[in-house]
Design goal:
It is a single chain. This protein is α+β, with helices and mostly antiparallel strands. Helix content is 28%, strand content 22%. α2 packs parallel to α3. The protein is globular. 35% of the residues are buried. The structure holds tetrahydrodeoxyuridine.
Length: 130
């Protein structure tokens, strides 16, 4: 799947968001090495810190289905600026997906492509726990 279609999938996933408290919807679509797509959206809790972001939702879904190797993740928001994944999601992308392409989609459907290490340089990881 090309990145235009992955971006469109993330935009579609955004429709399932449950942004009860922030009113800020996000969708994510994660592409595996064998071209399967796992989608996610943000789901919020009244105990705010229990909220899950779209990116981690998609990644944990894929991991829990046995997937381990990923090529790219598209993340879509409604903002004019390209959405910027939070620090927690950058760490999880780095740990569980490695150096992949991260497609950041704005409210117009335009996108830019970044690498994991661009969004999280000098990352903490497995190597630090040896
Ligand atoms: N959020 C995401 O799902 N992904 C991001 O990249 C940024 C933030 C969610 C978390 C929360 O539900 C809402 O957006 C506002 O922070």
């Amino acid at each position: 799947m090309d990145y235009k279609h992955l971006a469109e999938s993330a935009i579609k996933s955004k429709k399932n968001a449950l942004p009860t408290y922030s009113n800020f919807s996000v969708g994510a679509s994660l592409l595996t090495s064998d071209n399967k797509v796992y989608t996610g959206c943000n789901v919020e809790s009244s105990s705010y810190s229990l909220t899950i972001c779209a990116e981690r939702n998609a990644i944990f879904k894929a991991i829990s289905e046995g997937e381990r190797v990923f090529k790219a993740i598209a993340v879509a928001g409604d903002t004019n600026d390209f959405i910027s994944p939070c620090g927690a999601c950058r760490q999880v992308i780095s740990d569980l997906c490695g150096e992949i392409d991260i497609i950041l989609v704005n409210g117009n459907g335009d996108y830019i492509v970044k690498k994991t290490s661009e969004l999280l340089p000098f990352a903490f990881g497995d190597k630090d726990l040896e």
